[in-house]
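User: Sequence recovery, please. Input:
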């Protein structure tokens, strides 16, 4: 067992009888390298054959929890702990085994189309979590009134692998619904529809219609002509019909008595009846009626 005195080629023989010399052995030392399998690098260490490995280093990896060291890559082979006896007979490598975290964060950003222009505006950011290196798919919100998801937007990122460092950002884009405003001229000249109006936008004032004998009185929201549409502030949130209001023109009618007594002029309203007309008198004549010529 390695006791007694060492005997070499130069040692003087002092035995006086037959004797036995005993072999002395020194355990070999080997270098163990560590493959962190995506984790932080680990310095190699020396181990001695037939001893235990002793304290082993640890490592870290974003989105993963370190489990132990294995003799094979990708979690294969045998587990090696500080109490494992060294049986390798050459330099070797141990491989990190990892468990993917199930609470790795990722982000979903939601962008809405403006009422005009093309620069979408970020309106919501959701922080979610999932298992590292698995596929995450963003779900479009249905709570945005007047918006629908634009699944063909060139910057849309609807799914992706959850990065261990939480850097995955998914992006969804929403377009405003499009609407049409029709104009009911109520007997006036026709006015063209305005189409492809984005939800929440205002519209410009259309060309005024015309109607013989009437003055245009504006566009109203109801056919009962109760609420005037304000083209500066009122927004379009659905397909809409606006109704023209008309005010009948008032004209002054003068009377030529054709030799009779003078008659005072009167006002009349277009499309109404003339109502009570004045009479006149002329010596030697009987008044018949009024004529247009």
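Assistant: Recovered sequence (293 residues):
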């Amino acid at each position: 067992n390695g006791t007694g005195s060492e005997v070499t080629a130069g040692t003087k023989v002092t035995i006086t009888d037959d004797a036995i010399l005993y072999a002395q052995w020194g355990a070999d030392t080997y270098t163990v390298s560590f493959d962190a399998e995506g984790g932080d690098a680990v310095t190699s260490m020396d181990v001695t054959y037939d001893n235990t490995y002793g304290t082993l280093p640890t490592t870290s990896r974003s989105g993963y929890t370190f489990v132990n060291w294995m003799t094979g890559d990708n979690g294969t082979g045998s587990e090696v702990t500080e109490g494992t006896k060294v049986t390798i007979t050459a330099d070797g490598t141990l491989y990190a085994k990892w468990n993917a975290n199930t609470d790795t964060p990722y982000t979903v950003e939601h962008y809405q189309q403006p009422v005009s222009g093309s620069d979408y505006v970020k309106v919501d950011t959701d922080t979610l979590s999932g298992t590292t290196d698995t596929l995450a798919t963003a779900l479009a919100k249905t709570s945005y009134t007047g918006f629908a998801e634009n699944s063909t937007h060139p910057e849309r990122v609807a799914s992706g692998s959850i990065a261990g460092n939480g850097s995955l950002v998914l992006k969804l884009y929403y377009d405003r619904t499009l609407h049409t405003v029709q104009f009911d001229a109520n007997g006036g000249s026709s006015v063209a529809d305005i189409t492809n109006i984005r939800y929440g936008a205002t519209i410009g004032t259309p060309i005024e219609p015309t109607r013989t004998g009437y003055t245009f009185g504006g566009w109203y929201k109801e056919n009962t002509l109760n609420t005037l549409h304000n083209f500066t502030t009122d927004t379009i949130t659905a397909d809409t019909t606006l109704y023209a209001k008309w005010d009948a023109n008032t004209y002054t009618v003068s009377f030529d008595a054709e030799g009779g007594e003078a008659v005072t002029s009167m006002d009349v309203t277009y499309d109404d009846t003339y109502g009570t007309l004045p009479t006149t008198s002329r010596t030697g004549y009987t008044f018949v009626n009024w004529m247009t010529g």
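The radius of gyration is 49 Å.
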